[in-house]
Write a structure and sequence with these properties.
2-methylcitrate synthase activity; Citrate_synthase_sf; mainly alpha; Citrate synthase; transferase; 2 strands; two-stranded antiparallel sheet; single chain
């Protein structure tokens, strides 16, 4: 209890210093609503005690046996990570703090007159486990807007990048360069106590998230447009500002798509490459900037975040091949030609899921409402109708249903964001909203450096009494 009181006092001492820069916005001490930092701080002692009790009373319990197939199969399915924000069920799909995507769409606050949940609300939910009030989300929007200024040297660094350097490489470079601004790194160098790790991780994460739309938009406008980026509108939400800085805010449906996109792409358990990498690098007490940059480099891979681009390329090739013939037979024939050529059907299958990805469903419902007659959406719908049967007959996939990547590219294309190499940058902005809450939690509960044990093939052979 004493440590909890000291922690609360620490928050009250430091909060006015941080909020003094946000002139015109509600301060933490204003008494209107409880801030995100205060809400999270109040939960820390209870979470620490819960973990201590679990380890003390059940620490010797066997959770899972591990097979050689799992070890050589990329650690697939091995239960070994702690990730509080989301859990992925093979049949049900993702749950954010126990809530499905449809439930999040229903209960999370929206923009005035808006349809989709604001990503600010999901960030709050992932960090605290609580659904925020509308006022708390408005305050968080204002705080992110107030923190959004990007240092001049980072802007100049992006400007000096050659236009043919992949947007994801530019994104990673810019995030890494922000390490110069790290509260955590500076405090650690001065010798801060472990009890303050989470506070500086929180401040870095909030600053980083706030700056990502401007950084992402500057890369987009430099590479594909005129290089001019609109300033952040301080009275608008995160999704609107991203859409506006990209140059698409005149279309209110695109703004709603950005809010939905940022929400559903944010978090998908801790075992995927970008989430696990961010967590792993952070466990070495690297700052949130360096940790997220590492995760972004993993997200850039074709087996991870680049997948939605590959789906779109495949769909465009199919459209060129079959023209306007969207008959079941034409789709089925093209699917079989893909499989017989030794290729996979991109956007179908998932390492964990064994049903249609709820993130795909939410995008499909958006398309049915806003672009039902779009030719590419009609093609996606026909593939959705035919592909599961063909893949089941083919027999080489455990999950014949679509994942999130099967739909997102078509939506972006429809609204004019056609530059496919850029899509993973949007994914990266969203993924930050999911991985950084866990980084804050890791530091708050004192998670250790991650260091699994490795063996050579010869040693594994000895362990199972095999002769090679």
């Amino acid at each position: 209890m004493a440590s909890s009181l000291r922690l609360g006092a620490s928050i009250l001492r430091t909060a006015p210093l941080r909020t003094a820069a946000y002139k015109g916005f509600r301060c933490y001490s204003a008494g209107k609503t409880t801030s995100l930092k205060e809400t999270f701080a109040a939960k820390i002692p209870g979470e620490i005690e819960k973990i201590k009790k679990l380890r003390k009373e059940y620490g010797s319990e066997v959770v899972q046996e591990v097979t050689l197939d799992q070890i050589y199969g990329g650690a697939r399915g091995i239960k070994s990570l702690v990730w509080e924000g989301s859990v992925l069920d093979s049949e049900e799909g993702i749950r954010f703090r126990g809530k499905t995507i449809p439930e999040c769409q229903q209960v999370l606050p929206k923009a005035p007159g808006g349809e989709e949940p604001l990503p600010e609300g999901l960030f709050w939910l992932l960090l605290t486990g609580e659904v925020p009030t509308e006022q708390q989300v408005r305050d968080l929007s204002a705080e992110w807007a107030a923190r959004s200024d990007v240092p001049k040297f980072v802007e100049e660094l992006i400007d000096r990048c050659p236009s043919d350097l992949h947007p994801m490489a530019q994104f990673s470079i810019a995030v890494t360069a922000l390490e110069r601004e790290s509260n955590f790194a500076k405090a650690y160098a001065k010798g801060m106590p472990k009890s303050q790790y989470w506070e500086h991780t929180f401040e870095d994460s909030m600053d980083l998230i706030a700056k990502l739309p401007t950084i992402a938009a500057k890369i987009y406008r430099n590479v594909y447009k005129d290089g001019k980026v609109a300033p952040v509108e301080k009275d608008k939400d995160y999704g609107y500002n991203l859409a506006n800085q990209l140059g698409f805010a005149d279309n209110k449906d695109f703004v709603e798509l950005m809010r939905l996109y940022l929400t559903i792409h944010s978090d998908h358990e801790g075992g995927n490459v970008s989430a696990h990498t961010t967590h792993l690098v952070g466990s070495a007490l690297s700052s949130p900037y360096l940790s997220l940059a590492a995760g972004l480099n993993g997200l850039a891979g074709p087996l991870h975040g680049l997948a939605n681009q590959e789906v779109l390329i495949w769909l465009q090739k199919m459209k060129k091949a079959i023209g306007n013939d969207l008959s079941d037979e034409a789709i089925r024939d093209y699917l079989w030609s893909t499989l017989k050529a030794g290729q996979v059907v991109p956007g179908y299958g998932h390492a964990v899921l064994r049903k249609t990805d709820p993130r795909y469903v939410s995008q499909r419902e958006f398309a049915q409402k806003h672009l039902p007659d779009d030719p590419m959406f009609k093609l996606v719908s026909q593939v959705y109708k035919i592909a599961p049967g063909v893949l089941t007959e083919h027999g080489k996939t455990k999950n014949p249903y679509p994942n999130v990547d099967a739909h997102s590219g078509v939506l972006l294309q429809y609204y004019g964001l056609t530059e496919q190499n850029y899509y993973t940058v949007l994914f990266g902005v969203s993924r930050a909203l999911g991985v950084l809450p866990q980084l804050i939690i890791d530091r708050a509960v004192g998670a250790p450096i991650e260091r699994p044990k490795s063996f050579s093939t010869e040693m594994y052979a000895k362990l199972v009494n095999a002769t090679l």
